[in-house]
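SEQUENCE WITH STRUCTURE:
===
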Amino acid sequence: MITTRTLKKVGALKALACMMVFLQTLALLAGNAGMHSTSRNDHFVPSQEGGSVVFLSTAEAVKQDGALSAWLYKVQPTLFVKNEANTIYGGETPLVVECRPNAIQKLYVENSAYSAAKVLKILLNSPADLASIDLSQFKTFHSLEYIQLVFTFDVCKGGKDACLLATAQGLIIQATDHDVTVLYQLSIPE
């Protein structure tokens, strides 16, 4: 039970995270009892494979977990997946994998370089980039915790959060045996 005393001890941020875990557990239990709706508007969707997929805006996720900011915005060992060749910067073991949609198929192939990656960042530059990402095809992303979808064009004509959420949910085919958080962000360069 979260009490006022607990809030003072752990701080409001940690209490909020605890509450989110509690609510997600309730949603999962309700899903197992056949009562959870998996509508396109849910932020938490259990997978048939035993894992779950949570959808959050990048800003919301960083507010909940300040350490996540370092994974997303600070220099990390990164593997850039491209059609012509993969390139690793910042170290031998990439913790971030960055990919353009035209190279998504390369993520479905077994590659030991993907095994330690915690973040998969996918840059979406145009409506032509809005292709499905099938999580069940990821063979070697054993440490993956986050998939960040960065929309670099005005996909929703005004950037409405509900539209971005629905677009992100529409891109991810959810069949995974572990928990993954999908982050979505509108980041249009000037």
Remarks:
- The helical segments are 4-10, 12-32, 58-64, 68-73, 161-171.
- The first helix runs from residue 4 to 10.
- The two ends are 47 Å apart (CA to CA).
